[in-house]
Amino acid sequence: MELDRVRAARGVIDPVFLDSPLFGCDALGRALGCAVSIKLETANPVRSFKARGTEVVVGGLRDQGQTAVVCASAGNLGWALGWSGRRHGMDVTVVASRRAPAAKLDRIRASGAVLEVVDGDFESARERAAEIARRRGIRLVEDSLDVETCEGAATIGLEVAQQAPSADAVLIALGGGAMATGVGYVLKVLAPATEVICVQPHGAPAMTRSWRERRVVTTDSADTIADGVAGRYPISAVLDDLLVVADDAVLVEEASIMAGMRLLLQHAGLVVEPSAALGVAAVLEDPDRFAGRHVVTIICGSNVDLDDYHRWVGAGPQDLGAVEAGR
Amino acid sequence: MELDRVRAARGVIDPVFLDSPLFGCDALGRALGCAVSIKLETANPVRSFKARGTEVVVGGLRDQGQTAVVCASAGNLGWALGWSGRRHGMDVTVVASRRAPAAKLDRIRASGAVLEVVDGDFESARERAAEIARRRGIRLVEDSLDVETCEGAATIGLEVAQQAPSADAVLIALGGGAMATGVGYVLKVLAPATEVICVQPHGAPAMTRSWRERRVVTTDSADTIADGVAGRYPISAVLDDLLVVADDAVLVEEASIMAGMRLLLQHAGLVVEPSAALGVAAVLEDPDRFAGRHVVTIICGSNVDLDDYHRWVGAGPQDLGAVEAGR
């Protein structure tokens, strides 16, 4: 990655996805025992950060005269690619797992993309998308591997460095690694004193284990409510980048993710998908590490089935005390 | 009001409150039968638009060497004034009704302001705040009457005109009138083809009735869940401004406000306070008027007691069909 290319990416991305809010949330900070700033990546037409990357991908394809593109997606990338494809008049095919949240599948369809649903998990979708790309001779967008997806996500880093120069730590959801490597790279260049901490669920720990062992570690299964980060096969080149830019990679429990979602609702009024609560979960599990420090957490998506959400978070704040006391 | 002063206000307001997101929400648009853009005024440290005004007020007082200020508040203004006061080292006293949402009262206290709670409604708080100002010889901030509060709110209009130049109509919650007159004024100057539509609950119709009759009409009571707009005594000077800039003022039912909150949760993932759902409620009640047009609705606040919220919106989407069918 190069900083000049990340800066250039800003010129390609629809401004509706840029300069997202970053704001302190005192109430959440009091609950967590540190100063918390929220970088909100959900207040845009696709409710996640993913369009920063798809805008760069599709902008490049358009300049090359391409007219079609395919990706595998856990949901958010597919909706974002559909959105960018529609903006630029490009045919988009998205392959997703049948297990993806219905809310995400519905949005992909509504975006105008052709959605193909496969049995199995995200890795099955990846195989099928690669097959479609080969057969049709069209570009396969590989999230995290394709530098455009990392450069797009990295534009978040430019903004964080400017909006929160005093941040002691930035907490980043870790899945395939586009956001972690992109944002991490920019912060290491522009704000080297800021700690870059990646957060992944214990139930889908492949990239974190890989980072710790400094070699690709795969897992047989992924079992987490954080569907957006539930990969099993880390990409070697992405791991190489992550080893350079991440200061730490931590794993969190499912109960902490749910507690994080609950705190974000109660103290920030935000409905988020599980992946977006990983940062708060990390603070909940290790409060001493963050006590009194200024922490930025990137709220990366809000695409969640509401019935799941209510089950995870509980119907009302009256449930909160019980759940928190039980931690 | 003057456009130059509104532009100058941008230089006084902490950037964390400026350039809030404006984005199209296709899913909400499909549900409402028109193109809907959301201007999101909740992704900031006080979760409402009110700090745009208090920043201008407190910035001016600081320049005059003042050290204390008092206001009456339904909740959001008080939190915003507390926030701006803390930023500028100014003593802030807020008077609020005991009936205000606990979430709002808690936030005012936490902001560092001195909170005085009075019996009666917002108008009682207004009287008490005026008394405190007289006794202590400090500035009474009167929302909507004080031009700074309107100029601060009007900065939203600058952004809407730039972010959504194609908007056919902008829907603005109408309470005291700061937001409606401020945003309306800017839009009439910069985007005269855009319809400025104010929305108020049937249960608190004083300003709308005043606008229709072109004279101040007060009401004996205010009965609405939209606590942020529940005034009874319109200010004559504000009405004069509103008569110049508003193209229409409409009243909506409580059931429509709740349905609007529900749609914003289901289709945009947004938890909002009732006042912020007035725009969506207006579209729900008069779909033909907006069919196929591009409507911007300003989501002005998200400070709501979650137990109230869940009661109004229902615990899950499964409730939605029943309520909507019952409309």
TrEMBL record, chains A, B:
From the UniProt record, list the coiled-coil ranges.
none
- InterPro entries, alphabetized: Ser/Thr_Dehydratase, TrpB-like_PALP, TrpB-like_PALP_sf
The protein's required cofactors: pyridoxal 5'-phosphate
Keywords linked to the UniProt accession: Lyase, Pyridoxal phosphate
Q: Where is the Tryptophan synthase beta chain-like PALP domain?
A: 19-301
Q: What is this protein's name?
A: Pyridoxal-phosphate dependent enzyme
